[in-house]
Amino acid sequence: MPLERLDPGAELAAFARDVAAGMRASPKRLPCCYFYDAAGSELFEEICALPEYYLTRAEREILTDRAATLAAAFRGPVTLMELGSGSAAKTRILIEAFLRRGPLQYVPVDISRSALDGCAAALRRDYADLDIRALAGRYEDGLRHLRTAAGGQKVVIWLGSSVGNLERAEAAQFLHRVRDAVAPRGRLLIGIDLRKSRAILERAYDDAQGVTARFNRNILVRINRELGGHFDPQTFAHRAAYDEDGGRIEMYLVSTRPQQVRIDHLGLDVQFSAGESIHTEDSYKYSPAEIRLLAKRAGFRLEQTWLDNARRFSLNVLAP
């Protein structure tokens, strides 16, 4: 059974507050964490298999090459906590490497209950010796649990360059909290996407099959279902653009016509002009120098950086 679940009522209340604030803001915005309901999590798994979305393949390549080296650096029991575990497909490479060297407790943390339940059930079926303590919640819930966890070395893994969803200063502040949770002998293993050409990045976030567009629009479907919204998702175009100076992909939903959208549960009528956008996600990319600076600002020591063969993606080991 999952270790802990957030109160569904509290989750819905937080969603309602954030949607109300985002729809009243100028420019309009929605937090990207709300992408990951059951449908959104499934769509993201599809994205990870797309030919344009190089991140998953590059990170898997590094994990395959380096997992045994990482696991061999630890002695005795280990608690492996994964932030945003999803299906844990890549994480199996690490789990198998750690199980070969000794006792392992795996703590997947995910905001999507359906993804978490599916992940935990599959791992329990396939790894009889693995101690699984799943946590349905946000990253901060996971870190609170880890701070009080007893026994063994603590390793936090944060894959998929999810750190890119945070502004650079915000990323350093969050990683400092991770540092406090794994100190004094633990480690953070973090995947960070690298700066590269606009063409490669924009294709990765605006694929030819339109899966990322469906993923982006799904947040409107969720508002309709959970908050009584009346969005027509097809009247919003998906846009992904690379800001080269800022080093980030910006994702938007753009209204294709003037419209008014009612959200019943919020008692809110939202006005859109033609071409008006809702900002849904940023994905920051890093240079090697920016990765070193991020680690320093978070109070970590950058112990190791590994790259895939095409040098598109990095996997980094950070020590307190």
**CATH homologous superfamily heading:** Vaccinia Virus protein VP39
From the N-terminal CA to the C-terminal CA, the straight-line distance is 32 Å
Helix-strand topology string: EHEHHEHEHEEHEHEHHEEEEEHEE
Number of strands: 15
Instruction: Return the domain count.
Output: 1
* Fraction of residues in β-strands: 25-35%
CATH architecture: 3-Layer(aba) Sandwich
Mean pLDDT: 94
The helix fraction, in percent, is 40-55%
The description of the largest β-sheet is: 9 strands, mixed
User: Radius of gyration over alpha carbons?
Assistant: 20 Å
- Main structural class: alpha/beta
Which regions contain 5 or more consecutive residues with pLDDT less than 50? none
Approximate shape: globular
Look at the structure and give the CATH class.
Alpha Beta
Kindly report the CATH topology: Rossmann fold
Report the total helices: 10
In short:
By secondary structure, this protein is of the alpha/beta class. It is built from ten helices and 15 strands. Helix 2 packs antiparallel against helix 9 (211-227), helix 3 (54-72) packs parallel to helix 4 (91-101) and helix 6 (139-148) runs parallel beside helix 7 (168-182).
List keywords for this structure.
320 residues; 10 helices; 41% helix; alpha/beta; Rossmann fold; four-stranded mixed sheet; globular
Structural account:
The protein has 320 residues and is an alpha/beta fold. The protein has one domain: 3-Layer(aba) Sandwich (Rossmann fold), CATH 3.40.50. The strands form 3 sheets. Strands 1, 3, 4, 5, 6, 7, 8, 14 and 15 form a 9-stranded mixed beta sheet that branches. A 4-stranded mixed beta sheet has the order 2-13-10-9. A hairpin with a 4-residue loop joins strand 9 and strand 10. Helix 2 runs antiparallel to helix 9, helix 3 runs parallel beside helix 4 and helix 6 packs parallel to helix 7. The model has no long low-confidence stretch (mean pLDDT 94).
